[in-house]
UniProtKB/TrEMBL annotation:
Phylogenetic lineage: Eukaryota, Metazoa, Chordata, Craniata, Vertebrata
Reaction catalysis annotation: nicotinate beta-D-ribonucleotide + ATP + H(+) = deamido-NAD(+) + diphosphate; beta-nicotinamide D-ribonucleotide + ATP + H(+) = diphosphate + NAD(+)
Co-factor requirement: Mg(2+); Zn(2+)
Keyword ATP-binding among record annotations: yes
Gene3D superfamilies: HUPs
Family, similarity comment: Belongs to the eukaryotic NMN adenylyltransferase family.
Protein name: Nicotinamide-nucleotide adenylyltransferase
Record's subunit section: Homohexamer. Interacts with ADPRT/PARP1.
Main localization (coarse): nucleus
Localization of this protein: Nucleus
Length: 275
């Protein structure tokens, strides 16, 4: 029987998705199982938010392609969706602002079910049914929670100087919450233990252990593609087809932004030098 005190959760994953891989999709399934297994949460929706071109990461191809591939990849999911708001902003948007944007949308949707959404109608209807079912069964005072979903490498990147603002980390982890999926080579528990800031918010950080260690990375996929190797079964078939049809990922595309500083470094190094 369902626990009447469960909180509704929406999971938001920010990243390059250059291109989206099966592991990005698995990350959502693993996180939902983990959260629901605690008996405290009911996960009603997942959002993939590809970063905009202004992030300037090396090898980052146009957002329109990355968004379209993510759309194709999530077509068969009943609960994972893609949102292009972040990718359409002309400047790079800090993750804390992306979360705020989606949280405001979520609250607005709670009050107005007629708002426009990019997800197709059937998926929208299923998600809305979930909302309704959860609000009938679990009369929680507060609305749904939005949590950031990431791999352990993103959590560990919190420790890289000039990449994240301390107040943003505090807001993401303290106010919203983080779901972190283990990735080979990382040890999120150790990282949390060693950081006073993260330790303070440890109850808001849900570490999901991926037992089937999976080393799929978009870097590996791009490398295979520019060498003419197969990437079948690492990506959804529709994404493999899209990559082929548009001849994406070449030696040339990998050189994009090669001599440009990543947007957060640009932003925070400027801030520290300008006083
Ligand atoms: N194999 C994986 N295990 C756990 N998390 C993953 C895995 N692959 C990607 N992620 C997570 O998915 C999110 C988006 O990642 P991103 O788009 O950078 O993919 P990536 O495979 O790491 O790509 P790249 O190699 O270009 O960095 C991040 O939170 C990242 O940690
Ligand atoms: N300070 C910040 O808000 C900050 C810093 C670094 C990366 N990020 C985000 O984390 C994600 C990381 O993506 P990659 O792992 O593909 O680089 C991106 O969505 C990026 O915008 C945010
Ligand atoms: Zn990555």
């Amino acid at each position: 029987m369902e626990n009447p005190t469960t909180s509704k959760v929406v999971l938001l994953a920010c990243g390059s998705f250059n291109p989206i891989t099966n592991m990005h999709l698995r990350m959502f399934e693993l996180a939902r199982d983990h959260l629901e297994d605690t008996g405290q949460y009911s996960v009603i929706k997942g959002i993939i938010s590809p970063v905009g071109d202004a992030y300037k990461k090396k090898g980052l191809i146009e957002a329109s392609h990355r968004v379209e591939m993510a759309r194709l990849a999530t077509e068969s999911s009943e609960w994972i969706t893609v949102d292009s708001w972040e990718s359409q902003q002309s400047d790079w948007v800090e993750t804390s602002k992306v979360i705020r944007h989606h949280y405001e949308e979520l609250l607005a949707r709670e009050h107005n079910r007629d708002d426009v959404d990019t997800i197709k109608y059937t998926k929208k209807r299923r998600i809305e049914e979930n909302y309704i079912a959860s609000s009938v069964h679990h009369r929680k005072r507060d609305g749904p929670q939005l949590m950031l979903l990431c791999g352990a490498d993103v959590l560990e990147s919190f420790g890289i100087p000039n990449l994240w603002k301390q107040e943003d980390i505090a807001e993401i982890v303290g106010r919203y919450g983080l779901v972190c999926v283990t990735r080979s080579g990382g040890d999120p528990h150790k990282f949390i233990n060693q950081s006073d800031d993260l330790w303070k918010y440890r109850k808001n950080i849900h570490v999901v252990h991926e037992w089937v260690t999976n080393d799929i990375s978009a870097t590996h996929v791009r490398r295979a593609l520019r060498r003419g190797r197969s990437v079948r079964y690492l990506l959804p078939e529709s994404v493999v087809r899209y990559v082929q049809e548009h001849s994406l990922y070449s030696a040339e595309s990998e050189q994009k932004n090669a001599d440009v500083v990543l947007a957060p470094f640009q932003k925070y190094s400027d801030a520290s030098t300008s006083g």
